[in-house]
């Protein structure tokens, strides 16, 4: 590992001062690339038919994509602003919301999900490489190579962001345009369908976006302004995610919905099959490394909330090796279910943070010190928002878990209507409870 990091890079420990070097183009390029995922193309299958038997019309699916993307990216963009203002990464910011010790709870959850996502992305990269080159190079070799690249990028994170803006984004745009032109000639738009599953489809798209809430501030703290961070997230991510899912609708149509449902990597076939497909798909496979890099780097700064004086290069190296080890044995089964769980955890947490920080004067008193006092009351709206998500969502996950919440709805006499949306339900409940707690606290302080 290198012995020194330049002054325009992330400080080695949490106690260093973060440089403000990222402009709106840097942020936009980063988030646009994060929105384009290899298995995001197969995610079009969940978008089109989230309930497994009530497919959306093409118009309904595209509207759900735009609506869900705008809602989700607005959440991510707002979550980025406190990071820009305070210069603190996401999990350290939560000291101001929950207190230093209680912030370890969401920090632990974030570390688990980020390590899982990091390993998942190495698996995706390896599968994409196998789709291009076949079995001439073993799966394990691709995982190790991708893991090494990921770790190197995590050691120089701001350099990685600048690299993405200058070179990778342009190549990705060219590749996406190429595949769009090819697919439009090979597949006919879907016909039929309805709007019945519109709310679950929006839930799914929100979950795709909001999964980045826990790391938004990790990069936004290096932004030159809050406006640049917010615009980069909302603009870059929304445009790219809509394009990715729209392209995925055609890729799934070519590969066959049943084939993609049985094996999510079957969606790679149409990309490789078109003229020059292997070349342009290799660009997308290479680009996937920014996903694994973002996850490993976020895990690193999350761990610094627990170990503020440990050199982040050491942490990144350990996490990089761990993700490689996991990816060598991991498999993908419940992708859509996993996104549902992420939404249920982090959507209400974001709502609590947004209300407390922006509406209740939290920005003027935000305490991110290592001895920030516990704020137990903030756990209540988070927990209630989590429950509201599962009471209102109609997106299926795992049968025993869905059955449990069906029993809860029956026990409390709650009827879930078709128009209800889990993410919005969670956000509204968590926000209203947080606002109520804040108003009660203000009244008590006046007395």
UniProtKB/TrEMBL annotation:
It is a multi-pass membrane protein. Keywords: Membrane, Transmembrane, Transmembrane helix. Coiled coil: none annotated. It comes from the Bacteria. InterPro entries: CodB, Pur-cyt_permease. The chain crosses the membrane at residues 28-48, 60-81, 111-133, 139-160, 167-185, 197-217, 229-255, 267-286, 314-330, 336-359, 379-399, 419-440. Its main location: membrane. It is found in: Membrane. Pfam families: Transp_cyt_pur. Belongs to the purine-cytosine permease (2.A.39) family. PANTHER family: CYTOSINE PERMEASE, CYTOSINE TRANSPORTER CODB. This is Cytosine permease.
């Amino acid at each position: 590992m290198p012995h020194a990091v330049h002054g325009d890079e992330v400080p080695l420990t949490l106690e260093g001062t973060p440089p403000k070097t990222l402009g709106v183009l840097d942020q936009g390029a980063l988030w646009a690339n994060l929105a384009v995922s290899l298995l995001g193309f197969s995610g079009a299958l969940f978008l089109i038919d989230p309930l497994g038997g009530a497919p959306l019309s093409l118009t309904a699916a595209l509207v759900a994509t735009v609506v869900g993307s705008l809602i989700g990216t607005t959440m991510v963009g707002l979550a980025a602003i406190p990071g820009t203002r305070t210069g603190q990464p996401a999990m350290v910011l939560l000291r101001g919301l929950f207190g230093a010790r209680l912030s370890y709870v969401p920090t632990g959850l974030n570390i688990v999900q980020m390590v899982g996502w990091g390993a998942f992305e190495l698996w995706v990269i390896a599968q994409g490489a196998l789709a291009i080159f076949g079995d001439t190079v073993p799966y394990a070799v691709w995982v190790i190579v991708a893991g090494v690249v990921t770790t190197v990028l995590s050691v120089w994170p701001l350099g990685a962001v600048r690299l993405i803006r200058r070179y990778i984004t342009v190549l990705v745009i060219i590749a996406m345009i190429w595949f769009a032109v090819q697919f439009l000639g090979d597949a006919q738009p879907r016909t039929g369908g309805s709007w019945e599953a519109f709310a679950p489809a929006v839930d799914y798209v929100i979950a795709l976006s909001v999964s980045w809430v826990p790391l938004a501030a990790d990069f936004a703290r290096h932004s030159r302004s809050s406006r640049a961070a917010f615009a980069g997230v909302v603009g870059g991510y929304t445009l790219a995610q809509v394009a990715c899912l729209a392209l995925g609708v055609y890729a799934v149509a070519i590969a066959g919905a049943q084939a993609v449902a049985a094996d999510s990597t079957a969606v790679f076939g149409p990309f490789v099959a078109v003229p020059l497909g292997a070349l342009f798909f290799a660009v997308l496979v290479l680009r996937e490394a920014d996903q694994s890099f973002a996850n490993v780097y976020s895990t690193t700064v999350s761990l610094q909330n627990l170990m503020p004086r440990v050199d982040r290069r050491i942490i990144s190296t350990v996490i990089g090796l761990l993700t490689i080890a996991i990816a060598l044995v991991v498999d993908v089964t419940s992708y859509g279910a996993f996104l549902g769980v992420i939404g249920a955890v982090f959507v209400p947490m974001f709502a609590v943070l947004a209300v407390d920080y922006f509406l209740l004067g939290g920005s003027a008193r935000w305490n991110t010190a290592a001895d920030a006092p516990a704020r137990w009351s903030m756990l209540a709206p988070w927990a209630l928002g989590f429950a509201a998500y599962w009471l209102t969502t109609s997106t299926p996950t795992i049968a025993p878990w869905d059955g449990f919440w069906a029993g809860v709805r029956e026990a409390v006499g709650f009827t879930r209507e078709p128009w209800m949306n889990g993410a919005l339900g969670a956000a509204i409940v968590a926000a209203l409870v947080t606002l109520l707690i804040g108003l009660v606290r203000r009244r008590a302080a006046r007395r």
